[in-house]
Amino acid sequence: GVAIARDQIQVAGSSTVLPYAKIVAETFGETFPDFKTPIVESGGTGGGLKEFCKGVGPETIDIANASRKIKDSELETCKAAGVTEIQEVKIGYDGIVFATDAGNAELKLVPKDLYLALAAEIVVDGKLVANPYKKWSEVNKDLPDVEIAAYIPGEKHGTREVFEEKILAEGCKEAGAKDVIKGLIADEKAAAKACVAVRKDGLAVDIDGDYTETLARIASNKNGIGVFGLAFFENNADKLKVATVNGIVPSVETIASGEYPVSRPLFFYVKKAHLGVIPGLKEYVEFFLDDQMIGPDSPLAAYGLVSAPDAEREEGRKAFSAGNML
Amino acid sequence: MTEIVSSSSPAFVRPTAARRDIGIKRRYAAERRFRAYGMVAIMTGLFFLFVLLWTVISNGYTAFQQTTITLPIEFAEKVIDPKNERAANPSKLMTANYPLLVRDALVKALGIDPKNRAEVKKATEMVSASARMQLRDIVIANPSVIGTTVNVSLLAEGNIDSANKGQIDLAVEESKRKVNDQQIGWMKTLTDSGAMTKDFNTGIFTFGASSRPEAAGIGVAALGSLYMMLIVLVLALPIGVAASIYLEEFAPKNRLTDLIEVNINNLAAVPSIVYGLLGLSIFINFAGMPRSAALVGGLVLTLMTLPTIIIATRAALKAVPPSIRSAALGLGASKMQTIFHHVLPLAMPGVLTGTIIGLAHALGETAPLLLIGMVAFVVDFPGSPMEPSTALPVQIYMWANEAERAFVERTSGAIIILLIFLVVMNLGAILLRRRFERRW
Amino acid sequence: MNMMSEAAVEKALDQKMNAVPFKMIGKDVSVYYGEKRALFDVNLNVRENTVTALIGPSGCGKSTFLRTLNRMNDTIDNCRVTGKITLDEEDIYDPAIDVVELRARVGMVFQKPNPFPKSIYENVSYGPKIHGLARSKADFDQIVEQSLQKAGLWNEVKDRLHEPGTGLSGGQQQRLCIARAVAVSPEVILMDEPCSALDPIATAKVEELIHELRTNFTIVIVTHSMQQAARVSQRTAMFHLGNLVEENDTDKMFTNPDDQRTQDYIMGRFG
Amino acid sequence: MNMMSEAAVEKALDQKMNAVPFKMIGKDVSVYYGEKRALFDVNLNVRENTVTALIGPSGCGKSTFLRTLNRMNDTIDNCRVTGKITLDEEDIYDPAIDVVELRARVGMVFQKPNPFPKSIYENVSYGPKIHGLARSKADFDQIVEQSLQKAGLWNEVKDRLHEPGTGLSGGQQQRLCIARAVAVSPEVILMDEPCSALDPIATAKVEELIHELRTNFTIVIVTHSMQQAARVSQRTAMFHLGNLVEENDTDKMFTNPDDQRTQDYIMGRFG
Amino acid sequence: MNTSLILLLIMIVGFAAYLAGRSRAIATSNGKLSVLHSLPGYHGTYAAICAIIPAVIVLAVWAIAAPAYIDSGLRNALPETVLSQGAATAELALGQVKSVANGLNLLDDAELAALNNGSANLRDVLAAKGVPLAGEGEAYMIKSAAQFNQMTATSRVLMAVVVLLIAAAGAVFALRGISAPFRARNQVERVMLWTLMLASSIAILTTIGIVGSMLSEAIRFFNSVSPASFFFGTVWDPRFAAAGSEATQGQFGLLPLLAGTLYIAFVAMLFAVPIGLFAAIYMSEYARPAVRSIAKPLLEILAGIPTIVYGFFALVTVGPFLRDISAQMNGLITGNYVSFIQAQSVLTAGIVMGIMLIPFVSSLSDDIITQVPRALRDGSLGLGATRSETIKKVVLPAALPGIVGALLLTASRAVGETMIVVLAAGVAARMQLNPFEAMTTVTVKIVNQLTGDLEFNSPQTLVAFALGITLFCITLCLNIYALYIVRKYREQYE
Ligand SMILES: Nc1ncnc2c1ncn2[C@@H]1O[C@H](COP(=O)(O)OP(=O)(O)OP(=O)(O)O)[C@@H](O)[C@H]1O
Ligand SMILES: Nc1ncnc2c1ncn2[C@@H]1O[C@H](COP(=O)(O)OP(=O)(O)OP(=O)(O)O)[C@@H](O)[C@H]1O
Ligand SMILES: [Mg+2]
Ligand SMILES: [Mg+2]
Ligand SMILES: O=P([O-])([O-])[O-]
Fold first, then answer.
1. Are residues B345 and B295 in the same domain?
2. CA distance B329 to B335
3. Which pTM value belongs to this model?
4. How far apart are CA A151 and CA A205, in angstroms?
5. In angstroms, rounded to a whole number, what is the distance separating the alpha carbons of residues E122 and E135?
6. B118 with B177, same domain?
7. Last residue of some domain: B145, B169, B201?
8. pLDDT digits (tens, 9 = 90+) for E298-357
9. Average pLDDT score over residue span B119-132
10. Interface mutation target, options C58, C166, C208, chain D, most CBs of D under 10 Å
């Protein structure tokens, strides 16, 4: 095809990062009138990275947003296609909260309870059996006496992995199921997976859509518990009641400090070869990394991004200007 | 029966004929039931349409209003261009600190202590961040305003807008809402002074995408959809009709054409996202067309719409009685003439229905656009179908997934606009179809 | 009904035509197609167990009048009927009347043969089926065979009863439509040029059928053949430009018509 | 052609029929509808400027044969023709032949009237338009008027030329189709029972038309009326069960046919 | 001269040829058009075709081939240092050269000279002209760019000349061939026929494209997952191996998805077909024209409402409604107010999808039914059939081939729908028969596996391609079967 140098940055990838990238892109366009506002596509981390790894050149995208780290196999594919110089940029953290309808009493959750309520199989009398619990109160009598209904991120979402790692695996350990499972399944990986398998009898519902869908489901089933991003929750705090995990109320502060256990880092990946070729690309990345954008007092933080600690941000800026590559 | 007529029966006196029982009661009951089914069917359809429209409109009509705050803005030279270098370097005007002007005006209007940083921040948050652009455009358009004070209507920030329209429940505790009590007080002050008003929201039609609800509009999306629909109409209708004519009228009836027929039916069952995959690999990767462009979107939607139009057209062509064809052929019209002069006009209602339904489908489709990069954040208006743009359903989809409350009504507002777009688009076809409809 | 011999009935009918009761009475019937008026105050009565022939030049309103008799006009969008038509003293345009029953009692064979795109068998069994005139397969078989035989089509189609009726020749289609109408055994049969596409032999068959039916049914037939009218009918009505010119005993009509126009038409060059 | 007086032509034709050249020659024509054979090795020639009548009982293959003459059979899916048919010595089933041109030269009036669902005017002007027989509106008007006049329909429709042709009475539709075919002035005109729905006067008009056309055109007509065949044709062909029974001068045919079946058919009860 | 201008010129030549051809034909006829084999319009069109089509073909070929040719020349002429860095770098460099070339066209002679003697910075000069340049730009680029500009210009001029000559030649050729017996209509119709054929070949090309764009990735999927476990597997759980199995691979059982697809489509059809057909019948047979002309377009709006709206309708309104009403019903009967219909269920998805599909059935069928000739209706009514009997026994059978087409289209749409299912029936792949519980469809999984966080080259994503191809084949088989059935049925009648 006919390759003509582009004058507009193209970004694709995670829908979790999208709202942040949008704010940055819009502000960038306003602040740098010489450059066009970047195009930010949504299409999922996987889809974004796939486009990213198509090759180098103006007909390929410049930046892939990701709500997880790039995987080794993806990196390989990238390199094979000539995308050898990739710069990884961490923009901050996404807090993951549990919430229920605003009309409900406050929920105090611990990983163990969540594990027992949502796991596919739990240990009863030293044996793995299909999860028998139907109500939260059966799991823990302090929890409400209502049917279990949890709206958790579907497997297409990066959040799911975080949920499994930070909640289910943890709960599995706390409930003492991990040792039993290890005794039953020799393969370590398989054992770890068995710990985080979610029940499929309809009480735990996978949501492959966005948080709007989770919100709508809670609206139609007031007893449901949903998993949200912190930003989304904050915008709908009047409709939702957030649950504490291990007694900690999720907030920007508790997440940044690491007190609140469930969060994940957000990234984007830049093609170094495009820096300086695509007009404004370098400026865009620098603008993004500026404290003006991702600092604790920035619009992204106002939207709900959990800023990385000062040192980490500084390090990120240095790494980028030094041209560090994966 | 007819117990007869003999010569002896007096004239004009009729024997009462014993009527045959042809189950008339039962059949009429069946007839009434059948008719009722039809009515119920239409009513059901219309009922659902009504419910859907009602949901959308009741949620969305407020999107056509927007809260604005009219403030006397002092375009102070010491803020905009303290070193007076705009003559030499016009770009200075582009990057001036316009938000400061807004802040000063607000502080004055609300009577806040400028030193109280927390309060000032809360107050400035009430005005949309797009005020920067708004003021910049005013200054660039007319640099002579510098040094004067002008009343400017600024967009209120999304949450303030929502609160002003009553969409945020102000009864819940302060920490749980995006608008705090102080801001509510200010809102009242501004409303009372006539500075805060609700106006018709032209922005929703003219703005491009934005992360700020108050500055977000469907302009880019509508333009993108317009480009795509034009492409679809210009390509899919003629190609679809041509293909149907060939298959229905000319193609020899053999295994191959059977295969093509089945194949076309099958294409209708291909999930729309697969057309996105096709577009990505053929138009973008192979033919090198640009990503996120309405051109590619239009082509993909054309391919997606074709089966619908072809199937509808073929069905309509099939239904034209053979006597019409014989009549024309018998007069020495060629097959081509017969088809274009007689058969096609008679099949036209069906063709147009196919087009209406196909276009409606194409207009509302998001999934295939995902893979060709049209589900995106695009601020600048596309000057041509080659430039990045989005589409109406994409905008709806993206707004539906936004966290801010103000996007909820805008989502419904955008759906209303899409439906209006749909109706306008189909109107021509519907009128045309009525002209072609006739019974014989 | 078979108490009297056929000959006796015929004689009685022929001799005392005027004493035969009216099966249908048309009073001041006018028909409009949109603006255009197609019939002008036609007063025409149809006598029971009689064959009434309608004659007149093409476009004079014969089919239109025929259609008013079983309200087939209702199906034409812009068609409007005024006046009064009764069947056995009941006003058939009374809103309370049941069109379906009316049409079951007053059957019709159309001018253009219009077989259903179904098999020959289904074409004929259609009427009996919807009216519940037969139950078992055997009953249906019998009705189909009888009706086709009456229409003189049985021999030609008996081996292809399950082939589509639309694949027949023009004349065969016409006879199929006659068989279809006869299968319902209506009280009155309206026939719009039933022999127009038929060869002489088939025509003779149909005329024979009419003759036979007449003992039990009332028949109105539109024909362009004066000979046919003379052969099959007892009463003849002559239309011209939407007016009923004359209605009379057939014998009288063809020998000594009252109206000059009738005279001219009948004596017109040939028949 | 017009150098001779009409009467002279007629006389010449009548006397020396056998000397008249063949316009169309059918040799061993067989037609199959799927499995079913509808014509069996028919050898029938059509003479120039002659009216040839095809007679025979319903379903015997007259329409089928007629349709082979301008390849209208091609439009029936499962229909297959074998044998050879020529027009002016050209094999019309030759793949090189242009069917469209053939049909422009050999026009057809169908058994069932099938007007286009368009206005009367458009129905008639369609043929001339596609064949470029007229250019100006005036030309068209003239052709339309002439054709309708020839078909004896002008007076009835002259005030409603722009109303749909499908709103005409049966006989009017038939005449419209005749007018439509005549408007193209083909060399050969095939008419499948053109007068079946016509009253005697209209029939006379059409017969007159045929008579008139005959000086310039070749005509093949299917009819069920022996009288009509006798009146209008010079040659008559009799079909029976798909076979050509006899082809002969009309006079001879109706007075002294060679074949017994012809005799029986013609002498059949009435005509 | 750019391509669209040339195209415009060709069209003008074509139009002129049309006019000339027409008038020449008229002249040839000496005022008697009937001596012409074809109408003058056909002669004109033929001339236009001769002028336009060859020229446009050449133009298209040229427009594709020339840049490729120029590019390859340019690429080879890049400095060794660049070329040695691999193809990707070369591509980028090439892109840069083209930007430079673009910029050079905007410069005046003085600036060009300054550039050439190195006294001016390339990037700054171009930036001043509004042409952004990535990097500083190297000296060789100016030369390459100039060469590029020159080659492009030459190619354009040459192309314009050649193409317009061809157009003119075509026109002259056609015009000279005009004579009374010339079969222009046949020629034009042949071209039209080819055009029609070309149009219908697009359907085939689309199929090839669809299969082609999915095949290689599907094969990659089957390299890591055994086809048997995919096609016959009854568990869909891509991230977890079956309990007790040695494999660490997830389970990619197609059957639950397929079952869900067919089940939901079936329920949707069960809802849409009766409503749509009865609506069509009512509109075409009973309703007054005014009612029909309003109801029909209104129903058609249902087909244009974005599916996400339906999805939320199902999620927020229909699903909870069904759930609550089932609880009420259960309560009334058994005293136990537990809902037996889940908010997300096959039923919910089926109903909501059915609503969307109503106009597919109603509008298309309405057109077909209206097309049934009146004589058939009259025949039946004249026998004393009621309207409904006429419709059921005569009109519908006559309209059947068209209606079947409409139904197939509807079914196809039901199979291909995603968003409604996601929101109405969920994403849980379960294999069960209860319509009141959740299931999911193939298309849902295709979309979700493609657009998530999942690693893009793992079987979890690649399975989307396998699913796509499989669905394609399955619906193909279903369609073949449908065609077979329709044929068999039709044979009885037509
Ligand atoms: N399309 C068709 N498919 C099958 N058979 C047909 C078809 N058309 C005609 N036939 C059969 O072929 C034979 C000859 O038919 P044809 O129409 O030529 O008869 P015809 O002599 O014109 O009769 P009529 O005077 O009744 O019109 C008949 O038996 C008829 O049933
Ligand atoms: N649907 C219609 N719309 C408008 N005019 C009609 C319609 N049907 C018939 N006419 C007109 O009404 C008049 C009478 O028509 P009708 O069909 O009754 O004639 P007819 O006596 O049956 O003639 P034919 O012997 O030719 O069938 C004619 O002038 C005809 O053109
Ligand atoms: Mg009539
Ligand atoms: Mg015939
Ligand atoms: O869209 P995600 O990749 O962030 O789930």
1. yes
2. 7
3. 0.90
4. 5
5. 10
6. yes
7. B201
8. 999 998 888 888 988 898 888 889 988 888 888 888 888 778 888 888 999 999 999 999
9. 87
10. C58
Task: Provide the CA C2 distance to its chain's centre, in angstroms.
Answer: 23
What lies within 8 Å, CB to CB, of B359 at 6+ separation is B229, B232, B233, B236, B305, B425, B426, B429, E304
Regarding whether B415 and B296 lie in a shared domain, the answer is yes
Taking contacts as CB-CB distances below 8 angstroms, the residues of chain C near D193 are 170, 196-197
Helix E255-281 vs helix E346-371: angle between axes, to the nearest 10 degrees?
Answer: 40
On whether residue B207 sits in a domain, the answer given is no
All domains of chain E, ordered by start, with CATH?
Answer: 3-182 (no CATH), 237-493 (1.10.3720.10)
Distance (Å, rounded) from C-alpha C69 to C-alpha C188? 10
**Which tokens go with A108?**
């105090």
Tell me if residue D44 falls in helix, strand or coil: strand
Q: Which residue type, as a one-letter code, is found at position B325?
A: R
In a domain, B361, yes or no: yes
Residue with tokens 């589409």: B391
Residue B178 counted as domain residue: yes
Say which amino acid occupies E201.
Answer: S
SS3 sequence of D82-97: EEEEEECCEECCCCCC
Radius of gyration of chain B (CA): 32
- Give the residue carrying structure tokens 């019998």: C142
Beta bridge pairs of residue B152:
B71
Task: Note whether residue B37 is domain-resident.
Answer: no
Top residue of D35, D116, D135, D173 to mutate, by most chain E CBs within 10 Å, is D135
Q: B11 pLDDT exceeds 50?
A: no
- The DSSP annotation for A117-174 comes to HHBSEEEETTEEEE----BHHHH-TTS-SSB--EEEE-TTSHHHHHHIIIIIHHHHHH
Length of chain C: 271
The length of chain A is 326
Among D178, D50, D52, residue whose Cα is nearest residue D109: D178
Share of chain A above pLDDT 70, in %: 98
Side chain identity at residue E159, one-letter code: M
Tens-place pLDDT, residues E457-482: 888 888 999 999 999 999 999 889 88
Phi and psi (nearest 5°) for B89? Answer: -135, 85
D167 close contact with B: CB closer than 8 A: no
Give residue C52's pLDDT: 93
pLDDT tens digit sequence for A90-121: 999 888 899 999 888 888 888 888 988 988 88
Q: Say if ligand 1 is within 6 A of residue C120 CB.
A: no
- ipTM of the predicted structure? 0.89
**Does position D154 have pLDDT exceeding 80, yes or no?**
yes
Nearest residue to C93 via CA among C76, C64, C70, C61: C70
The number of domains in chain B is 2
E309: exposed, middle or buried (Cβ count in 10 Å: 0-12, 13-18, 19+): buried
Complete domains list, chain C, with CATH: 2-266 (3.40.50.300)
Does B163 lie in the same domain as B228? Answer: no
Same structural domain, B426 and B335: yes
Domain check: are B226 and B130 in the same one?
no
Which CATH number fits the domain that encloses residue B289?
1.10.3720.10
Largest CA distance in chain D: 56
CA distances from E137 to A60, E121, E134 (A): 21, 9, 7
User: Do B267 and B387 belong together in one domain?
Assistant: yes
Domain-terminating residue out of B201, B229, B250: B201
Residue E35 in tokens: 């001596």
User: What residues in chain C have their Cβ under 8 A from chain D's Cβ atoms?
Assistant: 33, 36, 55-59, 63-64, 111-113, 156, 167-172, 175, 192-193, 196-204, 224, 226-227, 231, 265, 268-271
For B331-342, the pLDDT digits (tens) are 888 899 999 999
Integer Cα distance of B414 and B400 in angstroms: 10
Which residue range is the domain that position B262 belongs to? 219-436
